[in-house]
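pinned: reference chain
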Amino acid sequence: MRTLYTFVDFFGAPGGLSLGFEMAGFKGIGALDIFEAGMETYAFNFPESKVIVEDIKKISVNDLKKELGITSHEIDVVIGGPPCQGFSTIGRVKIASLARNGTWKLNNHHPRFIDDPRNELYKEFVRMVDGLKPKIVVMENVPGMMSYRNGEIVREIIEDFDSVGYIAQARILNAVEYGVPQVRKRIFFIAVRKDLKIPILWPKPTHTYFNGMPSAGLLFEEKKLKPAVTVWEAIGDLPSPVLGRPKIADVPLNYDKEAFSEYQKWARQDSKAVHNHVTRQHNERDIKVFSLMKEGDKWKDLPEEIRKSYGYRDDIFNDKFKKLKRNEPSWTVVAHLYKDGYMYIHPVEPRSITVREAARLQSFPDTFIFKGSRTDQFKQVGNAVPPLLAKAVALSVKKMLENIK
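pinned: its structure tokens
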């Protein structure tokens, strides 16, 4: 009797979406991504999954099937978050201009999303779906798609899935409503193969967050929801990190405090040590400024003489410095964290957060260890789908699969 549903993850590094599906009881067959450090992390944390480090544009569906040892219609779910570089307003305007000038040979001056040359990776994702014919597809991306041109892009993506035999729906989900200690909105597409004739199911929130207050304003039908997990409930039990050292990405540390929240107990799991907990190097001026800041303070809240000493423009760098609040969820952790961590200043210690602290805010358990340089690790964490959000989606997908007769 079959016990585990299977999935393949495209653009899988470092494995947040995959981890969520595995936590929901799925089995990963394979993952593909071109990001070497991210796939080193994936291979370490998913040793039973086939890892393919390759440009998706350079691999055929048949070659992929051979590598994974599968046939069409065998995989239950295809998951992934293909980068859509042509989505931004600037990108769309630029492409339309190139089309008018004849640089890009398109059928019209307002190309469909799948025809936009900057969205090649999305097009390849659809090609893999068409070739593998999974029962269900889960795709995630930036939430701005929903509002751009009154939802035009979302409609086009749904039409693209329809053209390869799938009925799709889209919905914006906020990670904070599923137990992630971070306000992070993402758009998810769930598509089901037409011949299966089953309804699309979406996860219901388990946590609530209103107006900056984790448990304020509960409506009567929402009283069963838990309050949002806060920054301190997420990272307050971690030991002081290793002080920043060049080229040092990981020094395992012992836990020296008891876990004091349910989230911390969950995050520790069976981990024997704290990994990826090394700080950036900060100069004396930064440390002094961090110490002066109150929780929630931004660049604009700093005294004028301090702002002038850095020389950044106030109108551009409003969030250049930003100190986390202990008693609220974090704001969105972004991939830019790998370049500049000053938007994520620790609420108690005068420093920016570590990779492990960022991972806790993204809902990666401590057993999930990141590989590569510290820069690579920050990039992986910032780009990842929060595993607890992915798990919530995966549980809905599991119910859908159980409805197949």
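why pinned: Residues 6-207+387-402 form a domain with the Rossmann fold fold (CATH 3.40.50.150). The two ends are 15 Å apart (CA to CA).
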